[in-house]
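Researcher: Here's my situation. A collaborator sent me these components and asked whether they could plausibly form a single complex. I don't have experimental data yet, so a predicted model of the whole assembly would be a useful starting point for our discussion.
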Amino acid sequence: MHEIRITIGHASFRICSAWPKVIEQLETYYAAYPKPQIVDFTVRLEAISLLRRYIRPSVMIDGDFMLPEAAPLPLEQALLGAEMGMNLQMALGWYRQLILHASSAEKDGRALIMTGESGSGKSTLSALLGNRGWRFMGDEFAFIDLDSGFAVPYPRLISLKNQAIAAMEQECPNARFGPLLKDTPKGDIRHMVPPIDAIRKMDHSAKPAMLLFPRFGFDAEIYDILPSEAFMRLTHASTNFVALGEVGFNTLTRFVCEVPAYGINYQSGDEAEDMINKLWDKL
Amino acid sequence: MIAEYKIRDAQSLKFQTLDYISLLYDRLSGITHVVTDPAPQIIQVLGQNYLSSKQVETILQRQFDMTADENDNSFEDIITARLDEFVELGLVEKKFTNMKSNENILAKKDISL
């Protein structure tokens, strides 16, 4: 097996693969990330059988935590397999902070947390803001420190989906993009290397200042979200709220009580950015 | 014989009020219960001593100025329903007893029926 070790934020991974070109690909896109000696999790991208290592290669995602029923991916989508494998380790095995399925960005030392269902645009907005004066902190997970309540960055490769691919290619023509992965289980996907500033400051936490529930494709609107609604929605957006017990309860209730929450409906990235800046300026 | 209720373990419960709901975290089960009025007040009134729903009603009316809802359901019926739900959730214990056993508790709380 070939392997690469990567640190992303507070977490570190060993990704092993039966195919050297998968590791070479990961080395290319994760070149700027620290390489740890000791890792938290191992992800294995293995062939589903000896035959399928060579003929119509098919990747099975395995690791410290795995889903037995997960469908294998074609070798061309191994980068997505690595992403899914790392997501799985964090979602099922990370207990150092409260996990929120959310993106985040930082400005002036304060963090904006954005959460919502798939397609809400939270990943795209974090990438967009990361190119417009904010520090990109993460597009998939926001971690809330159990003591300080600060948001901990997790700036892995940005996973752009469907229409967001063209939008970000236009927004960041000089950014480094991965190969276009067509017709994956999540639609079309193209990875984007985060701005170097986001990677260099991956251990710089920030105090959460605003929680946003974006919804893409609706007429422009900004509305308040009550702490009770934010709490209910964030319990669904956290994979370890229950497992963390009382400390998870304390962390999440403090978060929703202290951090103002808003919903925004928007039709374009520019529109969303205007709304976010208006709300941010009022803080 | 009447039904009487008490908190299973008051030390195991933690409250957090968020605008129109209250969260009730049970340390014993690790479960967060989402409740609305009058459920939080019922839990606050109940202690380690058994009280009937009528006694809970009397205390609530005195301490929180609570009455029946607009559908004119009996307030005691509402309290009884919530208490029985708490019993099913394992937050409250229930027993059947005679009325006199709690007269001294009510006397301490300065409440007459």
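Model: Some features of this prediction you could bring to your collaborator: Chain A touches chain B through 13 residues (CB under 8 Å). The longest strand of chain A covers residues 97-107.
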